Amino acid sequence: MRLIIMGPPGVGKGSLASDLTKHYHIPHISTGEMFRAEIKKGSPVGKLVQNQINAGKFVNDSLTNDIVRIRLQARDVKEGFLMDGYPRNLRQAEDFDHILMQYGWTVDYVIYLDSPEDVILDRITGRRVCPTCGSTYHVRNNKPKVEGICDKDQTPLVQRPDDTVAITKERLVIYHDQTQPIIEYYRSKGNIITIDGRGSIEEVSRRVIEELDGKK
Ligand SMILES: [Zn+2]
């Protein structure tokens, strides 16, 4: 199954992605993570990416498409994948179709996680992260066993500096501008599944799996 997961920042894509990849035994392809890995390695691609980020830009389309193209050459994607963070604009969505076409593949479903703005703001402002292992928690919806402490390594949890109401609202505006055309693109192809992103991670995962299994 070849899936794309989309949704505004803070809607819970990361947790859902990890549930779905386990359930369907497909790899999670996150362009954000691939870029961070290249930067860490100090590779030529990593340096290009770092320059663009330092200049306050999104990574450009051709570089993003290249990294996706390379990732799709790996063996583990033969049975499918879950794409996260890509495509980010209409141009990339069209390019992605061309890339897949070389393998005779298409996108099966685009899972669009949606939530009202107040729910998203609550998710983001209540989010706490572990600086050691990167695990994320929420002060109400996904509490650690001991308040303020990571379950895995007992590190005190922190709030990311950009997880504020003002910055989140700004990110949402940018998000909607860029993604609305992609949603329309997939809607016209008839493979978009809109899922209510409210509720616990378990509830949202169950909703998605029921929808996908109902399509088979
Ligand atoms: Zn931790």
Give structural notes.
The protein has 216 residues and is of the alpha/beta class. The protein has a domain at 2-114 and 198-215: P-loop containing nucleotide triphosphate hydrolases (Rossmann fold). It is 49% helix and 13% strand. Helix 1 (13-24) crosses helix 8 and helix 4 packs parallel to helix 5 (90-101). The longest helix has 25 residues, at 165-189. The termini are close together. The mean pLDDT is 91. Zinc ion is lined by residues 130, 132-133, 135, 150, 152-153, 155.
**CATH level 3 topology of the domain at 2-114 and 198-215:** Rossmann fold
Q: Reading side by side through the largest sheet, how are the strands ordered?
A: 2-3-1-4-7
User: What's the level 1 CATH class of the domain at 2-114 and 198-215?
Assistant: Alpha Beta
The residue ranges in which pLDDT falls below 50 over 5 or more consecutive positions are none
Figure out the total of helices: 8
The oligomeric status of these chains comes to: single chain
Order of helices and strands: EHEHHHEHEHEEHEH
What is the average per-residue confidence, as pLDDT, rounded to a whole number?
A: 91
Q: Which value, in Å, is the CA radius of gyration?
A: 17 Å
User: Could you tell me the strand content as a percent range?
Assistant: 5-15%
- Sheet/helix structural class: alpha/beta
Architecture per CATH nomenclature, i.e. the level-2 architecture of the domain at 2-114 and 198-215: 3-Layer(aba) Sandwich
Main sheet properties: 5 strands, parallel
Bound molecules: zinc ion
